[in-house]
Design brief:
34% of the residues lie in helices and 14% in strands. It is of the alpha/beta class. Helix 5 runs parallel beside helix 8 and helix 6 (182-209) runs antiparallel to helix 7.
């Protein structure tokens, strides 16, 4: 007979706490990298920071560099061009998206949403999906692929992407609620709960009238009703933000760096208050042609990524890579400075940073740029570079599912769990 979680029997691991839950986040950047200046060389603890990762120098003991992982389902596989759309759609789903510019989109369930079924039973929100670019919801965005593929990395079902929130104010209200809506929300919840109670009473009568074959189907339906009841109860509980300095602007910040950092702040706040334990954040949509005048890059990112070995363009891609590293470093430092039980938020989290294109000029999907920060409550030993020889990225996600207590035989094209993360 299985025992419940008993903190007093849990092994004590340095830098971890026996009671704090493990949070997980996936931070996505588009268009690949300047691989020569991004990918570090070395092995184990003996590795050197590259120019693009230098802003992370004082955090190198807090993250892993994973080399040699590939997202093969982002490749063409006979479907022709469209690597940008495929890379975003496949990044967290491990699935090869169906090529269509219409409404018949299909990818796969993303790892965050599989985890949301597990973690969502304990938090106010099962997950939060953030971004900085809205993008189009209809039409073609990349060589015959629907815009939904380029604009989303989180997928609730194979045909239903999770719409991301790009407005910090709206994201805050989604996480913690709006004071002006509190009374109306209570009224709506009371009405829904009375309806659910009525349905629950009717179910007892139905049980006596239906066949034995139909009873499992009815029980599955009412279990979903009970889950709605549980979520309504959690969502009606106010989040205590007393003592936490929260400043959210009324409008989306004009400065891109401010926008990114505000979204990072919201993830930290959501994890700190245990409002959710899962987050995805698209720094920009895949194929984004955003400019970076703040670092003297006036050309569009996507345009530059097709550099055709033009050294000036390659240098500017490296500037963008470094800029994104600086913002990620800000996020990690804030996580690390936030107490969490006997440790801090970063130690009790696992944060994946990367994308499903390595070199934007070649549109390759192997040897991906990937960093993984945090200790997952003692399950991971960071501060190292690990070489994997042409293993699927989905092996990492299969491992993350296992760390959360979800044992799956496969995820996408996975071939097994990654070894070596624990040190």
């Amino acid at each position: 007979m299985a025992l419940p979680w008993l903190p007093s029997l849990a092994p004590r691991v340095k830098g971890a706490t026996a009671t704090a839950p493990v949070r997980m986040a996936w931070i996505f950047f588009p268009n690949g990298t300047n691989a020569d200046r991004w990918l570090p060389e070395g092995e184990g603890a003996d590795w050197k920071l590259t120019p693009s990762l230098e802003p992370l120098a004082d955090l190198r003991s807090d993250f892993l560099v994973l080399r040699g992982l590939a997202q093969n389902n982002a490749a063409a596989l006979g479907d022709g061009p469209g690597d940008h759309a495929r890379s975003a759609a496949a990044f967290l789903t491990g699935a090869h998206p169906y090529k269509t510019a219409g409404s018949r989109i299909r990818a796969g369930r993303s790892i965050d949403q599989i985890l949301a079924d597990h973690y969502g039973r304990s938090t106010r929100l099962p997950s939060i999906e953030l971004g900085t670019e809205e993008g189009r919801s209809a039409g073609s965005c990349d060589s015959g692929y629907a815009c939904a593929y380029s604009n989303n990395i989180s997928w609730r079902t194979p045909s239903q992407p999770m719409a991301k929130e790009i407005d910090p104010r709206k994201a805050f209200e989604r996480l913690f609620g709006s004071p002006s809506e509190a009374a109306a929300s209570k009224s709506r919840i009371a009405l829904r709960q009375s309806v659910l109670d009525m349905v629950s009473q009717q179910s007892k009568k139905l049980q006596r009238q239906i066949s034995a074959e139909d009873r499992p189907k009815l029980e599955e339906y009412f279990e979903s009703v009970r889950e709605i009841e549980r979520r309504l109860e959690r969502s009606s509980q106010p989040v205590d933000l007393s003592g936490i300095d929260v400043k959210i602007p009324e409008q989306i910040p004009a400065d891109y760096g401010d926008h990114i950092r505000l979204m990072y702040d919201l993830i930290v706040l959501a994890f700190q208050t245990d409002t959710t334990r899962l987050a995805t954040f698209m720094l920009a949509n895949e194929g984004s042609n955003k400019t970076f005048p703040m670092i003297e890059v006036k050309e569009g990112h996507h345009e530059l990524s097709h550099h055709q070995n033009d050294q000036d363009k390659i240098d500017k891609i490296a500037k963008i890579d470094r800029y994104y590293s600086e913002q990620w470093g800000y996020f990690l430092k804030k996580m690390k400075a936030t107490p969490d039980g006997e440790s801090n938020l970063l130690d009790n989290s696992l944060i994946v940073y990367g994308g499903a294109i390595s070199d934007g000029n070649r549109h390759d999907h192997n040897n991906l740029p990937l960093l993984v920060a945090g200790r997952a409550g003692g399950k991971v030993q960071p501060g190292r570079l690990i070489h994997y020889k042409d293993q699927p990225l989905n092996n990492l996600f299969l491992t993350m599912l296992s760390m959360a207590g979800i044992e799956e035989e496969r995820f996408g094209d996975s071939t097994g769990k990654l070894t070596g993360l624990e040190g």
